[in-house]
Specification:
Structural class of chain A: alpha+beta
CATH superfamily of the largest domain in chain A: P-loop containing nucleotide triphosphate hydrolases
Strand content of chain A: 35-45%
CATH topology of the largest domain in chain B: Rossmann fold
CATH class of the largest domain in chain A: Alpha Beta
Oligomer: heterodimer
Distance between the termini of chain A: 60 Å
CATH superfamily of the largest domain in chain B: HUPs
Number of domains of chain A: 3
Strand content of chain B: 5-15%
Number of strands of chain B: 10
Order of helices and strands of chain B: HEHEHEHHHEEEHEEEEHH
Number of helices of chain A: 7
CATH topology of the largest domain in chain A: Rossmann fold
CATH architecture of the largest domain in chain A: 3-Layer(aba) Sandwich
Radius of gyration of chain B: 19 Å
Distance between the termini of chain B: 44 Å
Shape of chain A: globular
CATH architecture of the largest domain in chain B: 3-Layer(aba) Sandwich
Shape of chain B: globular
Largest sheet of chain B: 6 strands, mixed
Strand order of the largest sheet of chain B: 3-2-1-4-6-5
Number of strands of chain A: 24
Number of helices of chain B: 9
Chain lengths: 422, 302
């Protein structure tokens, strides 16, 4: 039973002091995801600071420097399980200058929880986080209006905020938005409904997390397999190790190797636990083919009648993540699936003001900026538009001098829509 | 149809870990697996075997031996290395071991610094290893919760928590300059329970010290220590017999056992599920000062 549970990855976002860490702390506390010695440790801190009540947010704010500043400065990952599911929470800091962390935390999420302080309503930060959520194509948004205890659990306050939010969100592409009122501090609507908001007939926070359907969000249509390494233990076996990024594959299926375009069929699907007749995303397997073909790391195996785009010029949304600005015409490395290629960020078509969603002209992207960029790579890469396939539609930009991850990219179009090329 | 294409969270974790391990092999010149003999290392070893099956594990395992590890751990290590046909490197800081470095004389911090952290850094540089795969999990400790899966280390092996590379999707940045290295944590997203469930599902062998048994013990300052060649009773202490087991394994003088009757994996899972205490509690190392793991990691500790 235990091992049939599935996995839900969520990101939490909110402005500073929205009570995000308190909400997560409360969840862990009530779902018994916290150990007594960890509670003893925050009790000790409370005592040292002369506080009477323990601060549940301290369970979440990990690094010493964060505790000194009282803010969360880096993405933290938290884990808990219930009878129904295992959860991974990426807790993303709310502070303005740390937008890059929100993008990082959002990149693996099935669900975004966006916190709003009931006293403040929808802020610029809320809009920014929602925009990032939709840019990263997270299929579900849960808007949590927190600190309801400070507005007398007023239904009117909640309804007004919800209306404001939905009006703003109508400009974004979101598949599924829900809103709910909560008091993380007092516990109302977190795990138990509580007595203060009987007017709200929706699920509690935990019930929502346990029941949201995420299976249908996966792409089981387009088979994509990026080769990580070749396994050749002896002369009789040559297999290609990788993860099925999307789709399903069966023994006997036709196969095309990109970029060479060579064709073959699946001879066997090999794992340590035995051969499989069929495998699907996100399984890591080894594929052996009927024919001897030269295949190496970074090549992509696909079905002959369902191939990705293949181009060395494409257009992407880039979020810049380092102090040194992205310069138009700059040379970088791009890592896309298991491929690393030199690239030129040729043209910055526009920068997006993520508070107003307006496009503006710019020659560079600074830390936490986002913009639409035309990219040229030294050799073609195999990709799908991000909204169709997250794994083949995303990449990171690496600064060759510092080796740091300087940016994150989301591919929108192949070269077709681009202006004249040289 | 969709039901057939569902995988459990354990299978999802396994697949993610295998993807990470293969990425290490594909992108680094000289990886090594840091093998601590504990349950997480045992799981890690199985995942590495799975990642390269039907091939062999293509890189060596390194054990940093402080000389104070439980005898049962060392026996287990040598037996597994032989049985699984693994290239095992044992690295010890011999000069400080000879100087008599011991927690009771120099304090735990100093002992860890020389026999673990420094031995690890020396071991990595003597083998020119540019990637060290370890079994740490984010759930274990608060500073680990923020660690990347590919975690960059400068020439001194130090971790800079305020200047970590962003890590997105499952695209890992392996670029480094000569002398620098990366620590890789394929078990980042596993919890203690996941580890036990996986050990059960995969029937993975672990050190017998994890199972409860009547053992000779010494009670000292809230800790239950094993009465072995490393721990002699001090004045006023005596050796008693009790049914105890270990939740984590380390050095005998600093690893506390606890009283338990859990003799099988199922017993242990039941115990951990019901446990109200985190697994590192019986390790003296994290509790010396508030944030002590963070400080050690900045120095290069695993």
């Amino acid at each position: 039973m235990e091992d049939r549970k599935d996995l839900l990855r969520l990101v939490t976002a909110g402005s500073i002091d929205d009570g995000k860490s308190t909400l997560i702390g409360r969840m862990l506390y009530e779902a018994k995801g916290i150990y007594k010695d960890q509670i003893a440790s925050i009790e000790k801190i409370a005592k040292n600071q002369g506080d009477d009540e323990i601060d549940l947010s301290l369970l979440v704010d990990g690094l010493k420097s964060e505790r000194e500043q009282g803010i969360t400065i880096d993405v933290a990952y938290r884990y808990f399980s219930t009878m129904k599911r295992k959860f991974i929470i990426a807790d993303s800091p709310g502070h303005v200058q740390y937008t890059r962390n929100m993008v990082t935390a959002a990149s693996t999420a099935d669900l975004a929880v966006i916190l709003i302080d009931a006293r403040n309503g929808v802020l610029e930060q809320t809009k920014r986080h929602s925009f990032i959520t939709t840019l990263l194509d997270i299929p579900h948004i849960l808007v949590v209006v927190n600190k309801m205890d400070l507005v007398d659990y007023s239904r009117e306050v909640f309804e007004n905020i919800k209306e404001d939010y939905l009006e703003f969100a109508s400009r974004l592409e979101v598949h599924d938005i829900q809103a709910m009122p909560i008091s993380a501090l007092k516990g109302d609507m977190v795990v138990e409904k509580g007595d203060n908001m009987k007017w709200f007939d929706g699920r509690t926070f935990l019930q929502y997390l346990e029941n949201i359907n995420i299976i249908s969000d996966r792409n089981l249509i387009d088979f994509r397999f990026s080769v990580q390494t070749v396994i050749r233990p002896n002369l009789d076996f040559r297999g290609y190790a990788g993860r099925i990024e999307s789709g399903v594959i069966k023994v006997g299926n036709d196969m095309a190797v990109l970029p060479s375009g060579k064709k073959s069929h699946v001879k066997s699907i090999v794992t340590y636990d035995g051969k499989l007749e069929e495998a699907f995303t996100p399984q890591s397997v080894i594929l052996a083919l009927e024919d001897e073909i030269d295949i190496s790391k970074g090549d992509m195996l696909v079905r002959q009648r369902n191939v990705p785009e293949m181009s060395s010029v494409f257009e992407a949304e880039i979020c810049w993540m380092t102090e040194e600005p992205m310069l138009e015409g700059g040379r970088y490395l791009i890592k896309h699936t298991s491929n690393i290629v030199p690239a030129i960020l040729k043209e910055l078509r526009y920068k997006i003001d993520i508070n107003t969603l307006h496009r503006e002209d710019s020659r560079e992207l600074g830390l936490n900026d986002m913009g639409r960029v035309i990219i040229k790579t030294q050799k073609p890469i195999m990709f799908d538009p991000y909204t169709r396939n997250h794994a083949t539609g995303s990449f990171i930009v690496i600064d060759e001098l510092t080796n740091t991850t300087a940016g994150a990219g989301i591919i929108w179009y192949p070269s077709g829509e681009l202006p004249e090329e040289e | 149809m969709e039901k057939g294409y569902k995988i459990s969270f354990l299978e999802a974790l396994e697949s993610e870990s295998i993807h990470i391990i293969r990425e290490v092999w594909a992108e680094f010149e000289k990886p090594v697996l840091l093998y601590s003999i504990g349950k997480d290392s045992s799981v890690l070893l199985r995942l590495v075997q799975k990642a390269f099956y039907p091939g062999k594990v293509p890189f060596p395992l390194m054990h940093v031996d402080t000389s104070y590890k439980f005898t049962e751990m060392i026996e287990f290590r040598d037996r597994i290395a032989e049985k699984e046909d693994i290239n095992l490197i044992v690295h010890r800081n011999e000069s400080y071991i000879k100087k008599g470095m011991h927690p009771s004389k120099f304090g735990m911090d100093k002992c860890c610094k020389f026999l673990k952290t420094q031995a690890l850094l020396d071991g990595l540089s003597s083998g020119d290893f540019d990637a060290a795969i370890g079994g740490a999990r984010r759930e274990e400790e608060k500073s680990r919760a923020k660690e990347r899966i590919f975690s960059f280390r400068d020439e001194f092996g130090a971790w800079d928590p305020k200047n970590q590379r962003p890590e997105l999707w499952s695209i890992y940045n392996s670029k480094i300059n000569p002398g620098e290295s990366v620590r890789i944590f394929p078990l980042s997203n596993w919890t203690e329970i996941d580890i036990w469930e996986y050990i059960k599902k995969e029937n993975i062998e672990i050190v017998p010290l994890y199972f409860a048994k009547k053992r000779d013990i010494i009670r000292r300052g809230g800790l239950i220590l094993l009465a072995d060649e490393f721990n002699e009773p001090r004045e006023g202490e005596e050796i008693e017999k009790a049914s105890v087991r270990f939740r984590t394994l380390g050095c005998s003088p600093c690893s506390g056992a606890f009283e338990s009757e859990a003799k099988t994996i199922d017993d242990i899972i039941g115990e951990v599920m019901a446990a109200a205490r985190s697994e590192r509690e019986h390790r003296a190392i994290d509790y010396e000062t508030e944030g002590s793991m963070e400080d050690k990691k900045k120095e290069g500790y695993f």
